[in-house]
Structure formats: C-alpha cells, structure tokens
Amino acid sequence: MIDLHAAVEAVLPGVRADLERLVRIPSVAFPGFDHSHVRDSADAVAELLRGAGMPDVRIVSTTAPDGTPGQPAVIARKPAPEGAPTVLLYAHHDVQPAGDLTAWEQDDPFQVVERNGRLYGRGVADDKAGVMAHIAAVRAWGEDLPVGLTIFVEGEEEYGSASLEKLIEEYRDELAADVIVIADSGNWDIGHPALTTSLRGIVNAYVEVRTSTHAVHSGMFGGTVPDALTILCRLLASLHDDNGDVAIPGLVSTEASPLDYPEERLRTEAGMLDGVEFIGTGRIVERMWTKPTATVLGIDAPGAQESANALQPYARAKVSVRIAPGEKDMDAYAALKAHLESQNAWGAQVTVSLDQGGNPCVIDATGPSYDAARDAFAEAWDGVRPVDIGVGGSIPFIATFQELFPNAAVLVTGVEDPDARAHGPNESLHLGEFARVCLAEALLLRNLVK
Ligand code: BES
Ligand code: MN
C-alpha cells in the first residue's frame, strides 16, 4: 500500500501551482460577464484531469429549462476495479464576481497573493481549491486508485446551476456512484474538521411597487400622493419582527445540533462593529442553519446623491429568503409572496416574482461511508475527529443528487474555514487546512475499500 501522507505531500507544490493557474482565469458565469473565461477554465480543468491520468475526460453542457445555454462542466471517469465502489467527486470551477475592487488588498483579485499562510484571490477557496483537492487525491494515488472515480466539475454553481438538474439527468448513467463527495463547504475551525449534514435552501424574489404613471414634485404632491420607494421600504420592513426574526408566516424552522457557536467568535468572524446587536432569537446555530432568514439584496431606486425632490412612481427590490431544512422552495416562495401582497401598501400595485429557488437538504450521516470519511478526517487532522455541522448557505442540487441516487452516501466536505470570506473581497484559502483536505480525500478513497 502506498504511503498516502508522503504521496500527498509530494504532489502539493504542483497542486498549488495549478490552483494559482486556475484562479488567474476569471470564470464568472453571471450574465454580462465574458463567458469565454468559463470555457477556458473548463478546458484547463479537463487538461489537469487528463494530466492526472483520468482516461475518459469530456466537457459537456446542456440548456436550462428556460432555454438559456448552460455553462460547460467537465466529467472525467475511471472505471472501478473489480468489486470496488465508484465515487463521484464534485466541485465547481466558476466563481463569484470580484465585487468592489477597492475593498481588495491586492490590485488584481484574479492574481494569487500569499500572506500569513493564506492564498488570496477570487475563487481560491470557493471552489477552485475544491477542484484541486480532487486532483491532488488522484495524483497522490497515481496508477493505483482503489475505487472507480467520476469527477464532475460544474461551471455555473454561483449563478444557481440553472441547467445542472437537466445535465445530471442527461448524464445520469455516467454520474451514478455509490458515494458522492461534494467539496464545496467547509470545516468547523482551523484545526477542526467537519462533515456538513444540513444546508439551507434559498428563494430569491423581486418585489416591484407601482404608484403613478410618472414622478411628481415631492413638495407639491407630498402628503397626499404616496411614493413607490417609501411603500417598498414599508414592505421590506415587514419581513422581520422587532427581534429580527423573520415575520413571514408559515415558514419551517427546525432544531440544530447541540454545537455551541460562541457569540464572540461570530462577532469577530463577521467583523461586527461595537454596539451592533445580533438579530433573531434561539441558539446561534439554529439562527444560522435551521431557521429562515430574509435579506434585502438590492434596490432599484434613485441613488442618494443624484436623487431629485420627487415622488417615485416605481421601485424594485431583490429579496433573498434562506429556508430551513425540511422546507420546499416553492412553498416558501408562496409564503413570501402572500406575505408581501397582504401588507397595507396604500393601494399601490405590488408585484412579486420569482428569481430563483433552491431546496435545502439534510443528510443522514450514518453508515460505513460516513465512518470511512470520519476516520479519514481524524487521520488527516492528527487525531481530531470531525463534528457534524449545518451551514446557512445553499447547494440546491444536493437534493437533486439525493433524489436521483437515493442509495448513494453524500459527503459534503470542503476547504472553507471561518475566515475564507467566500463571495466577499479578500477571499482566501488557509494553506495548512488545504493540505489536510487533500490528504483527507486521498485517505477517504482508501477507507472506502477497507
Ligand atoms: N460554497 C457555497 C455554499 C456554501 C456556503 C457552503 C456557505 C458552505 C457555507 C456555494 O458556492 C454558494 O455560494 N451557493 C449559493 C447558492 C445559490 C446561488 C443558489 C449560495 O449559497 O448563495
Ligand atoms: Mn461554492
């Protein structure tokens, strides 16, 4: 049997160099961005998988149900040795937009910079390190892979994976596996691994308010004619009660694991200013993982600086509701829509429309594959056993995998630590933790055949 600790150690410098190469490709799948970069990053991932010895590597795509062309995904396969299980390794090669460039400490978010044991750059953690962890495991094993592998690296996760469900259905036979590893979450803390066993779902919706055919003078007409932006603010304020709990009736809440998330830790991780209070009631992990939350993501209205003294005839907001495990996304959307439409909007026309839904999931993490994963994690983290965590973020297609492959064990792993700042400026990857994630994945493949 090969010494996996030494084998992973030996491949890490090359893995890091290739990670930096991937980060330099700004593969943003959002509309309005140059999607040739997403194609380039799919090509780069395919080349890395071929180079790692995967014999059958293909770039595939399909169209979303609404007809928009899907982004390219990479499927690489190596058949299972006689009697061994097949393992599907998932990650995504698309990334969030860089956002506010002035908030980055580096000039170019798509160049990798190392500081204090971390690599900084857009996508370096979410989720290009997930891609490279899979490649690290394959490189470490070389010719002697003990399991069959299917590596599936998708290209539109950050934009909601609109075509993914169809893609998974179209390539169902190729993707079928006994164990599915989704490397797109994170660990409990630096030095403390975790298995993610629940994720919230998501409902993003637009709320539009119309009051008049045109804007009018706010002095002349103010006090009698209502203003669309003011009404929108009242609607948005109705999403929470005074405690900061979500006030939309009918949404599901469930209980979370007994883990304690110290308030001081949360305060520091989120960079909360002195005096700012936490919102919501109940234990911290429940508020973050198993209760709904509502956020106003953006508002279309005149900017403060350029605004005129006028009553606005129209305003629009995008609202995001994260939904608890056990909720159905379209039930939550119906509850949100009914709630907003039932508010007193002084007779204004209120239109609620769906942008995107995604289901939550819960994983029953019991059985031999989960034991194999826990042992692999404990070995990679020098004896520290993983905890089961929930996360407040969403990976909606996990529910699709669970439906299509009901007998597969789903292991949600990943490289993110609490300071990774995925989606924000100065996203980063902790190099020490990344090395452990790579080792844990190589060890997992061994443990699955033990
Ligand atoms: N990697 C995240 C999901 C995640 C978030 C895992 C937090 C662990 C902790 C993923 O890339 C993501 O951001 N997903 C989107 C899904 C949405 C576009 C449907 C999200 O949660 O906003
Ligand atoms: Mn991700």
Key attributes of the depicted protein:
four-stranded antiparallel beta sheet, six-stranded mixed beta sheet, 450 residues, Alpha-Beta Plaits, binds manganese (II) ion, binds ligand BES, alpha+beta, single chain, 31% helix, Aminopeptidase, 2 domains, 13 helices
Describe this structure in words.
The structure is a single chain. The chain has helices at residues 4-23, 36-51, 128-141, 164-170, 172-175, 218-221, 228-237, 263-270, 284-290, 329-341, 368-380, 397-404, 431-447; strands at 56-60, 73-78, 86-92, 113-115, 118-120, 148-154, 179-183, 194-199, 201-210, 216-217, 293-300, 310-311, 314-323, 349-358, 361-362, 387-391, 409-413, 428-430. With 450 residues, it is α+β, with helices and mostly antiparallel strands. The protein folds into two domains: 4-199 and 360-447, Zn peptidases (Aminopeptidase), CATH 3.40.630; 201-269 and 278-358, Alpha-Beta Plaits. Helix 1 (4-23) crosses helix 13 (431-447) and helix 4 (164-170) packs parallel to helix 12 (397-404). It comes from Actinorhabdospora filicis. Residues 199-346 form the Peptidase M20 dimerisation domain. Keywords: Hydrolase, Metal-binding, Protease.
